[in-house]
Design brief:
Chain lengths: 171, 648
């Protein structure tokens, strides 16, 4: 047996596997947005279907989940049931869907087919998405009861990640 | 229906691979001929099933069967047929299925070509190949199942990532990469088998070399095609950004290149056996590391797939493969006896050793630069990235050193030589060096590194041309081929040095009808045009480019807005000549006011990088001789090691 080869080999293996393992622990979807820790940009947008104005400020006092999505986005279809179920499970948290680059009839068709448990507003000119620095859909922001952003999640949420992120906002 | 059939094929391939792996290892121990025969059969069964599964998925994609989960995820009725075909490897599950397809093909071919040969090594090699196959079939059967069923199939899907739809080069870059990556499994199997046997005989060198050379050719092409694609599509005028995943494709290429060279020393001198085997194994391990980088989501990159579900599984496989390799090496490396020694520094074999050391140094440099952000994050919790300056400052000197050895090495004879021989071999090529430097100076090259590159390049070119002139194309086929590859490498390195150090960048703002000058060309803006296609809409800026009052080309850089993406994707347009490229990229365009802002990059010699890599690949392929000829030749040339003639 060649002890030198064994020693060097084990050291290299330990370093590489150890580093990659540490890397695995973090979720690449959990993006460090510069907005985290800051007050969420305010918006007041038209709710799809009803036409009434929904102002994010009116939810102050409870944690808020803002989900940016669109009907043309495949991963959003995948994510939708997770959010609908999450909103039903957590009445103490206010969920809001923000749709951009889309038409109202498509949105309503989508919601009718796939169910809904929270208001969906239409970001006609994409101004709100820009204010939040949305790079692509779906992207989800978690606000605490004071209206400050505590987390940003890029990509479709699954139930486990949703619960984990919610805990940050409720805390 | 298709989903169920696909599941059956994958589960079947998993069973066949696992059974074949066990049979292979068992028959390596017991030397059972029946065991080997069944292991071989299992290898064919595995290949048939996994390739069948991939073709089935291709069928599902083409028939838009949205009840198959993967089709629902990446399929779309509105994209062209070629995009549908390449969707197979556009997302995680499909890309692993494609991996399986390529692995199946490689294993079947390797088993077929080694039938009745290398009986000492074959059973264990099949065991290793099918162990890898077992792992990838396991991924497809569980964590990354592409054949999930969609209960309420949608009428249409989102289509693959728009970046993949933006250029036809995307249809070829990934397959070449897979052919390179996956192919490294075969030499890995041979190397492991040699270690298990405790012997790296002369007989195994040929399959080892050929099974390494073929994926090396694909890997070289893949790296070039990736760079070319980035150049044609991403619009920043460059082709290489030291992105973690680019590095991941370069790392195994570096060790494979080193191994191809050290194999020659093994062949000629019977030394460096353990080292060579280690390099081949490292190549495969770096492939798995690269796969982990793209598939785990640990690294952020244009190449990354978003899901990270298979990250842990891949890491377990990587760890297992590393430990297996380390154990095998430490228990068996001492049995690979040296049959000779190096006879001094000024010999060709010494140059091979230096070449190998530089390649390994380069590998470590790139590897450390790639994982350094992970180290920093592990220690301090901060996110960071290692930029171009680190890589450039480390890699440029190493590249220049390699170019130097590329000239000196082939000029030196094998074994010891007299002072007179050395003088004759080493002095004349200096003319080549002086010539190329003079040409460079006349053409305006002032950058010191570029001039050094030209000097070493000229030296190496002289040596290479003399060697090509000496060899007979058909008789000395392997030798001829390797010098063609060398010549191409010289061209690549010179083109890289010149194009990157002499690039001119100009930013211009236009209103319709305006003419401005950039890098010796007159650019006239003809206006903004719009184009609608099924899957995208484009804004096109049209520019007439002329030189000395004569229009040479019409360039149309564009902004493509894909249905599925919010941000538009810019596509540059390039006017390519042998002397250099005139590259135009839109930074802003407004159809209402008919204005546009562009960035123009003028880089000399770029096109020679692509051409030379293609020549390099063709040259290497030319060196892979058909089997029959080889068998006859090898029978004739059964000369003892050390006194063998120049490899033909």
């Amino acid at each position: 047996m060649n002890r030198t080869v064994l020693t060097i080999g084990v050291i290299i293996t330990a370093i590489i596997v150890g580093l990659l393992f540490l890397g695995l622990g973090k979720n690449p979807n959990e993006i460090r947005s510069p907005l985290i820790g800051r007050p969420a940009p305010s918006f007041a947008l038209r709710e799809a279907g009803t036409g009434r104005t929904v102002d994010v400020a009116q939810f102050r006092g409870k944690p808020v989940v803002i989900n940016f999505w669109a009907t043309w986005c495949g991963p959003c279809w995948e994510e939708h049931p997770v959010l609908v179920a999450g909103a039903r499970r957590h009445p103490e948290v206010q969920f809001v869907g923000v749709v951009f680059q889309d038409t109202e009839d498509k949105i309503l068709g989508f919601l009718e087919q796939r169910g809904v448990s929270y208001p969906t507003v239409v970001d006609d000119r994409g101004k709100t998405a820009i204010a939040y620095g949305v790079a692509g859909v779906p992207e989800t922001f978690f606000l605490d009861a004071n209206g400050a952003i505590v987390a940003k999640y890029s990509g479709p949420l699954n139930a486990a990640d949703l619960e984990q992120e919610l805990r940050k906002g409720v805390r | 229906m298709i989903a169920a059939l696909g599941r059956i094929l994958i589960l079947g391939s998993l069973l066949a691979a696992a059974a074949g792996a066990l049979l292979g290892f068992a028959s390596a121990r017991t030397r059972s001929f029946d065991g080997l025969r069944w292991a071989r059969r299992m290898a064919y069964v595995y290949a048939a099933l996994i390739m069948g599964a991939a073709l089935l998925m291709e069928y599902a994609l083409l028939t838009h069967d949205f009840s198959v989960a993967y089709v629902a995820q990446v399929g779309s009725r509105s994209v062209p047929v070629w995009v549908t075909i390449v969707s197979l490897w556009s997302s995680l599950e499909g890309s692993l299925l494609f991996w399986g397809f390529v692995l199946g093909a490689y294993i079947a071919i390797a088993v077929w070509f080694t039938r009745g040969l290398y009986a000492e090594y074959q059973p264990a090699a099949i065991g290793v190949w099918l162990s890898c196959a077992t792992f990838f079939s396991f991924l497809l059967a569980g964590p990354a199942n592409p054949f999930g069923t969609v209960v309420n199939p949608p009428l249409d899907g989102p289509g693959p990532n728009p970046l993949l739809q933006n250029h036809a080069l995307m249809a070829v870059h990934p397959p070449f990469l897979y052919l390179g990556y996956v192919g490294m499994t075969i030499p890995f199997g041979f190397a492991c088998a040699a270690l298990m046997k405790g012997k790296l005989g002369h007989d195994i060198l040929k399959p080892l070399r050929e099974s390494l050379l073929l994926p090396w050719v694909f890997q070289s092409m893949a790296i070039m095609l990736g760079g070319w694609w980035a150049y044609e599509v991403l619009g920043w005028g460059g082709y290489w950004a030291w992105d973690p995943v680019e590095n991941a494709s370069l790392l195994p290429w570096l060790t494979a290149t080193a191994a191809l060279h050290s194999l020659m020393v093994v062949e000629r001198r019977g030394i460096l056996k353990g080292w060579t085997v280690t390099l081949i194994q490292a190549t495969f391990l770096l492939v798995i590391l690269g796969t982990f980088m793209t598939r785990s989501g640990v690294f952020n990159s244009v190449h990354s797939f978003t899901q990270s579900a298979i990250g842990p599984t891949l890491l377990v496989f990587l760890a297992a493969a590393l430990l297996f390799t380390v154990a095998l090496l430490s228990f068996r490396i001492d049995r690979l006896e040296s049959e000779g020694r190096i006879e001094g520094v000024a010999t060709r074999e010494a140059m091979f050793v230096i070449n190998n050391l530089v390649f390994v140094l380069l590998t470590f440099t790139v590897l450390i630069g790639t994982v350094f952000p992970l180290i920093v994050e592990a220690v301090s919790g901060k996110q960071m990235s290692v930029g171009r300056p680190y890589f450039d400052s480390m890699v440029v000197p190493a590249g220049v050193a390699l170019l130097f050895i590329l000239g000196i090495g082939p000029a030196l004879p094998w074994g010891r030589s007299t002072r007179e021989q050395m003088r004759k071999a080493l002095l004349p090529p200096l003319i080549g060096a002086a010539l190329l430097v003079a040409i460079g100076l006349l053409a305006g090259v002032r950058n010191a590194w570029t001039l050094v590159t030209l000097a070493f390049g000229g030296y190496a070119a002289w040596v290479t041309i003399v060697q090509i002139g000496r060899g007979h194309i058909l008789r000395g086929r392997r030798r001829f081929a390797s010098y063609i590859v060398h010549a191409a490498v010289i061209v690549v390195l010179i083109a890289v040095a010149v194009s990157s150090s002499m690039r001119e960048t100009t930013e211009l703002h236009f209103t319709s009808g305006q003419t401005q000058r950039a890098s010796g060309y007159d650019v006239k803006f003809l206006g903004v045009f719009q184009q609608q296609e099924a899957h995208r809409s484009s804004l096109i800026g049209r520019f007439s480019v002329s030189r000395d009052g004569k229009e040479v080309t019409l360039l149309e850089p564009r902004m493509n807005q894909y249905e599925m993406m919010r941000e538009p994707i810019g596509t540059p347009d390039v006017y390519t000549t042998a002397r250099g490229d005139f590259y135009m990229s839109l930074s802003n365009i407004d159809p209402a006011t008919q204005t546009a802002s562009i960035t123009v990059y003028s880089s000399p010699l770029i096109v020679w990088i692509w051409i030379a890599v293609i020549v390099m690949a063709l040259g290497a392929l030319f060196g892979l001789r058909p089997k029959k000829v080889v068998a006859v030749r090898d029978a004739k040339a059964a000369v003892p090691v050390g006194s063998a003639p120049e490899p033909a």
